[in-house]
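Good morning N.,

You mentioned wanting to compare the apo and holo forms, so I went ahead and generated the holo version with PLI. This is what I fed in:
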Amino acid sequence: MDKKYMPEPYKVKMVEPLRILQKEERVEAIKKAGYNTFLLNSRDVYIDLLTDSGTNAMSDRQWAGLMMGDEAYAGSDNWLHLKETVQSIMGFKHVVPTHQGRGAENLLSQVLVKPGTYIPGNMYFTTTRAHQEMNGGTFVDVIIDEAHISDKEDVLFKGNIDIKKYEDLINKVGAKNIPYICVGVTVNLAGGQPVSMKNLREVHELSQKHGIKVMFDCTRYVENAYFIKAREEEYKDKTIAEIVKEMFSYADGATMSGKKDGIVNIGGFLAMNDEDLYYKAAALVVVYEGMPSYGGMTGRDMEAFSIGLKEALDYNYIKHRIEQVEYLGNRLIEAGIPIVKPIGGHAVFLDAKKFLPHIPQSQYPAQVLAAEIYIESGVRTMERGNVSAGRNKEGKEYFPSLELVRLTIPRRVYSYAHLDYVAEAIINTYKRRDEIKGLKFSYEPPVLRFFTGKFEYI
Ligand code: PLI
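and this is what came out, ligand included:
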């Protein structure tokens, strides 16, 4: 059968009504929010593509799992389910639960990052780098150069580590000053770009040779596995579960935000093979999160998380997810709109430098573009550019090469009809792009400024 797309591999059992404000109301709402889409009230948003984090729709099985919550303070059944699920999918020996991904990043950074150490990674992520820096470490970007070029579409694994850059860093600062390499699978800020199995293997080999731990940020690891199956010839007949198992065989541990590929609304963990690291992290988790058998999650959260981790390995689920993202991206490409290519796993990223070439990066083109898309349509998106990158230790802005607006697709929430509306909203905004003006900060918070900063038009 010839069709535009394969429909959703699920049907609707419960609905959440949407409402759309009038244009004048949207103009008021975004002004009140200081032109920061993070500060909009969700009730004022029509289609919410701010993030795919914690915005997932759970399955009937996960909702049933909530009813099986064992809310014991220690050693609940749900914890055992979650731990065993992580162990069996990823193969790690130890698991420390946390309330979300950054809780795991806090534990890992506190245990392993010391002042004067360096943490290489395939592009930074905001909270990950913040924890490394708060512990006195320096993040070093060792992703391949092509990842920083938005329209470099012939590179299928744009999240790959540049082995030469990594080796040069080892030679320069010494392996003893590199506690671990953080490998994001996929790489969020590069546009949801995957890392190849071949690259993971090479990173593992080089790290082993120098006694450096490999820690994955496995927040979106199922999306990465799907791309390996689709793009790396020798994996085309493997199941997602088999690919995932091999990916993790090249890691010593991982941090995970369950709010993404765990298909839940809250949850996370730090997993590892090293017993010493486990004991140190388990000693800290009681200070920051809770007992090592719940780490900030309720029993019911852990049950839903455990079920979600298994559901995410279903090929039909992940295929549909990636195809939805591709569909939206391709509609925009057809309309001549500049986006990051290849289209990534969790989101379509607009290239704001090309969308609004008349606005210099010091006037935050991605920030204003996100605000204007909201005014145009009620669709909420997120800035991922100069505002997100923040300032270095000397107080200077980073001016990252990628100045992007992210249209992030929540898992199992929106239909293709919603995506058509989003595509039209972006196309309409593009048509009036010349009228759009730059922004300046009216309030700039000292860290992670993108969350709560406020702006005004110049
Ligand atoms: O939001 P958390 O604390 O559960 O997870 C932090 C986190 C870690 N790594 C990566 C790659 C992320 O994408 C991530 C969170 N991402 C958010 C909130 C996002 O909107 O992309």
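The mean pLDDT is 97.

Happy to go through it together on a call whenever suits you.

Best,
F.
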